[in-house]
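Appendix B. Chain record.
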Amino acid sequence: MNTQIVMMEDGIVVPPKCYKIIKANLKDKSYVSAFVMENRKFIDNEFGLSSFVVEIDRLEKMTGLTFNLGKY
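Structure tokens predicted for this chain:
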């Protein structure tokens, strides 16, 4: 991910993007979704959540991390 930081108007320093991984275990199957969003004060409502979805492999490459999510 980009290592630049963003200074918010109230003096808080944040990375330019953040990610979230959600794993749901339902009965005999697991579901995983990953999202990457820009850290901005407001995000337009015209963008649906699906526009921020990324593949787990891509997120691992972006972050340099390995997410041990087991079978999904």
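Further analysis of this model is presented in Appendix C.
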